[in-house]
Amino acid sequence: MTSDWRPSTPALDGDTLREVLGDAFAAVGATPRSELFDELLAHYAEPHRAYHNVLHISEAYSALVERGKRVERWHEIALALWFHDAIYDTHRHDNEERSAEWARDELLAGGAAADVAARVHALVLATKHRDPPEGNDARLLVDADLAILAASPDRFAAYERQIRQEYDWVPEPQFREAREKFLRGMLARRSIFSDAAMRERHEAHARRNIEESLRRLGTVR
Questions:
Q1: Domains and CATH numbers, the chain
Q2: pLDDT of residue 14
Q3: What is the distance between the alpha carbons of residues 209 and 221, in angstroms, rounded to a whole number?
Q4: How far apart, in whole angstroms, are the C-alpha atoms of residue 31 and residue 23?
């Protein structure tokens, strides 16, 4: 049985993503630097990124659109989504912190209020997936970031290959150990998704995908 999850909007092209980012800045009363969009795109196009690229932003954005009526501050969550993987170095463990700081700095420099910048900063940090997200928009953003776990079998398999490619410098035994830890951490949660509609539609399929991944890793117990 496959998931019924599909993006509710087509994959976003560069022009559309630029418009989303520009609208979000304008809505929070800020003006982005003229170079910012191209800088972000350059980061998401870095050669070591196989999964954490613009396609991931597009897929997560589509998952957010499905929950659009539940979002409290749409433009802030859009900004957080755009920035949440802006810094991505698989040799480091502070990518979200650095991405959150970049977002906050750009918003403040562009004229956004301090509370707006602080909320976007906190939203980006929520995508570390280490603690249960607090607040409605944080829960929705984290669910969108994790929506790939409930993708179709083919897309999920491609995602797993892409993650391995991003960590191709890690020896296979160590990668398997780290991957198992992440996947088992997801299964150990009371629920993977915080939003009730996401849980109802996608929780079971996400868990099947993860269990199948563990079988492929040879670690099912």
A1: 14-146 (1.10.3210.10), 149-217 (no CATH)
A2: 67
A3: 16
A4: 10
